[in-house]
Amino acid sequence: MLERAAERGARHALSEVGLDGPEAARDISELRSLLHAFNEAKKTAGLTIVRMLVTGLVLALLAGAFAKLKVFGGGQ
User: Domain of life of the organism in this record (predicted)?
Assistant: First the structure.
């Protein structure tokens, strides 16, 4: 009896969110695919931000080194 009640509750919950009927399995598969793509995009964005910060730091260090060595300022 408990199992039947749980199944009815699950069917009702899926119906409430529009995931019932013959297309439900495909819809859920598409939702999982979208979630996976979103997570990959977040990961890629994070890696891109880290790469940009590291590149900026390296460029700042090189600019400081060049200024210290007076490579671009003429000199004595």
Answer: Bacteria
